[in-house]
Amino acid sequence: MNKSKKKLELSDKQKQFCLEYIKDYNGAQAAIRAGYSKKTAKEQATRLLTKDHVSEYLNELKDEIKEQTLLSIKHLDESILLMVKKAKDVPVYDDDGKLLPVTAMNFQGMGKALELYGKRLCAYMDKINHSSKDGTLKPVIYIPDNGRDKKNNETK
Hints:
By secondary structure, the protein is mostly helical. Helices cover 56% and strands 6% of the residues. A hairpin with a 5-residue loop joins strand 1 (90-93) and strand 2 (99-104). Helix 4 (52-88) runs antiparallel to helix 5 (107-120).
């Protein structure tokens, strides 16, 4: 007898668990929010996360989120580049309101567009990360060497 693997369907409660889990990746809390008992939430989460059909659904949700994020980033990039273009080509009018055959640059608009693009590329930071590589909150001082260490080591 040849048994084929039938894809198991998720119950509404299991789907809700997945939707809750994807929010913060806390299995016990996701189980509680999905309607499972607080008393057994941790065990239910562990059980659900080991089921293949639940993991497949979670992967589908993650892929959807990834795709939406990439589309949002693409839209952001396109919008910023449009701002740059519009800031370059500002129409110029004479005192009578007639359009002149030249364009000017809107430096304020260009500055804002470049600032946004710099933030997008993480060219500079508004916040300083005070945590160390091991995850503790030990103060970390990073000074780029810019070749100074090499020069100091050569003189020693």
